[in-house]
Amino acid sequence: MNNCISKKDTKAVYKDGNTVRKVFAPDYSKTDVLYEALNTARVEDTGLDIPKILSISVEDGQWVITSEYAKGVTLTQLIKEHPENIDSYVHAMVDYQIAFNKRSNPLLLKLKDKLVRQINALELDSNIKYELSTRLESLPKHNKLCHGDYCPDNILVETDDAGKITAITAVDWVHATQGNASADVANTYLMLKLVDESFAEKYLVDFCKKTHTDRRYVHSWLPIVAAARMTKHIPEEKELLESMIDVCDYQ
C-alpha cells in the first residue's frame, strides 16, 4: 500500500483502486475502531450519501477499515488553490451541513450525554462546571444528525475547471451524534475560529442567515463546546478555550 493520502501518529489512509483503507496503529484500541465503523454505518442508515464502510479486518496485527473512495480534494486544499472563491465555498459548506442536520438516527449517541461526560472529566473549578452543566441542561434537546468534527479537512469536494464545487460530502463520522444542530455549528465555528477568524465569521453569518437562527443562540453553546474541546488537551488552544468557557461572556 504505497498510495498514502493521509497519515497521523495513530492511523494512515491509503487509496486502493476504488476503495480507501484506514490502517490503525498496532496498539490502537479495538473498541475505538469498532465504534468508528458502527457510528459511520449508523450515519449511512440515515440515507446521507457518504463513503460507505465495506469491511473491517485485521492484517499483520493492525485493524483496517475499508470504505468507498470519494473523489475530489479536501475543502482545505480547494481554498488554498482558489481563495478568490471563498464565499461560494462557505455557502456550499453551510448548505451541506443544513442538509445533513435534517437527518437523524435514534441509535446514535445523544450529543448532550457526550457533552456532560466531557465537562465532568475536566479539571475545572466546581462553580464553572456547575454553570456549564446548568446551561447545557437549559438548552433545547433535539435529535438532528451532528457531525462533531465538521471542518474543511473533513469535507471532500469535486469541482469544475474554474474551481466551482459540483459535488460535496463529509468523511470521518466517528464523532457523529444526535442533538442540537446549533451545538454542531458552534463546534465548527470554534474550530474555524482557532485557525481563521474571518472564515469563521463568514461561516456563522451564512448559517444564521439561511436558517433564520439568532447568532446569540449559537453563541450560547460556545462555552460548552469550548469546554468539551479542552478534553483534547492541545496546549496552543488552552488560553483561548479557557477564555471562552466564561459563561457570563455569552449571555
From TrEMBL:
Q: Output the SUPFAM superfamilies linked to this UniProt entry.
A: Protein kinase-like (PK-like)
Name of a matching Pfam family: APH
Q: Which InterPro entries match?
A: Aminoglycoside_PTrfase, Kinase-like_dom_sf
Show where the Aminoglycoside phosphotransferase domain sits.
Answer: 104-211
Q: Which residues form a coiled coil?
A: none
The protein in question is named Phosphotransferase
The top of its lineage is:
Bacteria, Bacillati, Bacillota, Clostridia, Lachnospirales
